[in-house]
Structure formats: structure tokens, C-alpha cells
Write a structure and sequence with these properties.
By secondary structure, the protein is of the alpha+beta class. Strand 5 and strand 6 form a beta hairpin. The chain has a single domain (7-146), classed as Nucleoside Triphosphate Pyrophosphohydrolase (Alpha-Beta Complex), CATH 3.90.79.10. The radius of gyration is 15 Å and the shape is globular. Strands 1, 2, 3, 4, 5, 6 and 7 form a seven-stranded mixed beta sheet that branches. It starts with 6 loop residues before the first strand and ends with a helix. It has three helices and seven strands.
Length: 147
């Protein structure tokens, strides 16, 4: 019987600390050696939001507060890869900790928004950053109008 390939579900977070964004340099495929947002696979029985909080903590030591959903992105397999991923990305705020790379991240640091855009290897992640900035601005405006 032929071995079936499966779509993998993953989460990611665009984490803001003020005007800075948290990035990780990936230590494993896909995109090993490239900068991205923290995230990873959803474990069986785990909610997407719990998974993103866990993945950010495991990769960077950072604690976050989820603000909202950014979007769902898809990565189709390339000729030299067999991974097909659906990635659910969230916008979040930093609530504690200093970035320390661990798990499958080689490096982790907060950088300015323009620097983050320039470092990212994947256009869809740049799109997620831009959408996250707008979502955070809307959330802040709503919080001010409620007060």
C-alpha cells in the first residue's frame, strides 16, 4: 500500500513588544537558517491558541497574550520537500520574559518592524506581519474607545 502524505497543522504568532516584533532564526526545516515568527505544530487534542502560547514559550521563553487571529496561510510542498502545512497565525502582545532561543530556534530577538520585514524569508510571513500591525492598531483603538 502506498504511503499517504498528510497536511500538517501549525500555528505562529506575531508578537509585539511596543513597536518591536519577536523573530526566531529557524534551526530545523522548513526554512532552516531563515528568520520567521515563532510557532510550530499543533499537538493532538491541543487547541490552536494553547499551541501558539506553548510554541512561543518553548522557542523563546516569552509569555504572550493573544490579541486575535491574523489569517490562515498555506505552504505547498516544493520539489525537494514533502511538507504541506496549514498555518494559523495570531497577533499577540509580549507580557513577560526575555527572548532566549531554545527548542528548534537558533536565535530569538525583538527587532523593529522594518527590520523584521527585511529579515523574513517568506512573503506570506511578511503579509502576516503587516496584517498583525493593523489588527493590533484596531484592538488598541477599540480599547481606548471603551475606556
Amino acid at each position: 500500500m502506498k504511503d499517504k502524505k498528510h497536511i500538517k497543522a501549525a500555528v505562529g504568532a506575531v508578537v509585539f513588544r511596543g513597536h518591536e516584533v519577536l523573530l526566531v532564526k529557524r534551526g530545523r526545516p522548513p526554512l532552516q537558517g531563515h528568520w520567521s515568527i515563532p510557532g510550530g505544530k499543533i499537538e493532538f487534542g491541543e487547541s490552536m491558541q494553547a499551541a501558539v502560547v506553548r510554541e512561543v514559550r518553548e522557542e523563546t521563553g516569552i509569555e504572550i497574550e493573544i490579541i486575535g487571529l491574523i489569517d490562515v496561510f498555506e505552504s505547498l510542498p516544493q520539489k525537494d520537500e514533502d511538507g504541506h502545512y496549514l498555518m494559523v497565525d495570531y497577533v499577540a502582545r509580549h507580557v513577560g520574559g526575555d527572548p532566549v532561543a531554545s527548542d528548534d530556534a537558533e536565535e530569538a530577538e525583538f527587532v523593529s518592524f522594518p527590520e523584521a520585514l527585511s529579515r523574513l524569508a517568506w512573503d506570506q510571513t511578511r503579509t502576516a506581519l503587516q496584517q498583525a500591525k493593523l489588527a493590533l492598531r484596531r484592538a488598541e483603538e477599540q480599547a481606548v474607545s471603551i475606556d
